[in-house]
Amino acid sequence: MQAHAAQQQRYERLRHLSTGGMAEVWLARTTGIGGFERLVVLKQILGKLATQEEFVQMFLDEARIAASLHHSNIVQVYDVGLDETVGYFYAMEFLHGHDVRALLRRARETGFRGGLPLEHALTVALGVCSGLHYAHEKVGSDGVPLGLVHRDVSPHNLFITFDGGVKVIDFGIAKARGRLTQGTAYGTLKGKFGYMSPEQCRGDQLDRRSDVFAIAVVLFEMTTGERLYTGSSDYEILRKIVEQDAPRPSRFDRRFPPELERIVLRGLDRDPRRRYGSALEMQLDLDRFARELGVLSSPTALARYLANLYRDEIEAWLGAQRAGISLAAHLQTRDKIGDDDEPEVAPAEPPDPLGDTRLPAPVPPPPDDQKSLSRSRPGPSPERRTETMMPASTPSPAQARRSWLPWALGAFLIGGGAAAGAWWWLRGRAEAHLPVDPSAPVDQPRSIAPPVDPVLDLPAEERRRKKALPK
């Protein structure tokens, strides 16, 4: 796409969002006649690179590919241009929400173990599959498939809006036919190590099945709450991906649904020939699994979950609305938001021109006594109570002994006390109904021995007979 002058439609930069190796990202606003106003995310090439033809072509390649994709699950590009003060830029739709990485972090902070609730993890995965399949099927103006591969599918590049929308963002390092800058420098890898496919780690030729592998990695992490590939070094991570089969999700949660485990493991197969042939195939399997399980997987339910997860943030925005403050003004004046909590960042941090080879920080494992992946909830919110949860995991033998011994001892003491109380109560009732000997002194206890049989008490009978004889 050829860049054009942007004097016809100026963008007012409101707030800096992030800076990468090739570009920086801004929250911006464009206005027009009749009170027209729109928030956008403006991505502009760094000034020091604007005069270098190679980087300009890489930037325009990214813009051209992204602008050609029109799907509800892919971030939209509105404009590409050249401004005297900004330089080369392109404008994308503004997304109000958070990426999957931030959602997983917030879920852990609220005490929710095991990633995301199952129905919401499925909603995200289904949307990602749909968007990527569209991109994989995209054809050029000549009718020939572009052969597009995202190459950087990760929680950082999957965005969830507050209305429940699922968006794939940042096609900055996508591979596609007709791209002017196709090459990858020898010895470098493009993408995030923990989400690369084995063939991507080896530097082999890639097709859509590489993205399918990355979708399965994200789905694994959303449904278990555990990072799949970690290591003490980048090399160790790459070696695990290439040489080791992925562990079963049931290793982290023994009651993980078997059918979902089958789907995840097929997507994670190291051999692309045994993997799903397309994102659509994986989407159909996930959709069938959700129907059979009776899981309510929908954008509306996902929006309710985010409303509960980010209640304070959304209430602040609604309060600004009631006060007549626009979203642009609200986002511009609110306190600076940290990297862990950026609702308005639609695109991920721009990639390094030679490839993003940084490994996201691994999620620290919980202590031994908190490794159960049971889906506990932090509060009594009605929305959270109705969510379909993954079954609780089976603890290890050591954890099991520590957990049931106090309960068993308590149950034994309570049961013993109850039995003793019942015995004394029954004994008292039995004594109350025993006959009382009238000849016994009042202060003596009542006899609990059975009465003497008069037939067998011959001496007493003989005495009574003698007393009855006339004198």
Unreliable spans: 1-8, 183-187, 335-404, 429-458
- Characterize the largest beta sheet: strand count, sense, and whether it forms a barrel: 6 strands, mixed
**Helical coverage, percent range:** 25-40%
Order of helices and strands: EEEEHEEEHHEEHHHHHHHHHHH
Q: Which of globular, elongated, flat, extended, rod-shaped describes the shape?
A: globular
Q: How would you characterize this protein structure?
A:
By secondary structure, this protein is α+β, with helices and mostly antiparallel strands. It has a domain at 99-393: Transferase(Phosphotransferase), domain 1. The chain contains 14 helices and nine strands. The chain has helices at 53-67, 100-109, 118-137, 198-202, 208-224, 234-243, 258-267, 279-293, 299-309, 311-322, 327-333, 382-385, 397-432, 458-468; strands spanning 4-5, 12-19, 23-31, 37-45, 77-83, 87-93, 97-99, 158-161, 166-168. The strands form two sheets. Strands 1-5-6-4-3-2 form a six-stranded mixed sheet, covered by helices on one side. A three-stranded antiparallel sheet has the order 7-8-9. Strand 5 and strand 6 (87-93) form a beta hairpin. Helix 3 packs antiparallel against helix 8. The chain starts with a strand and ends with a helix.
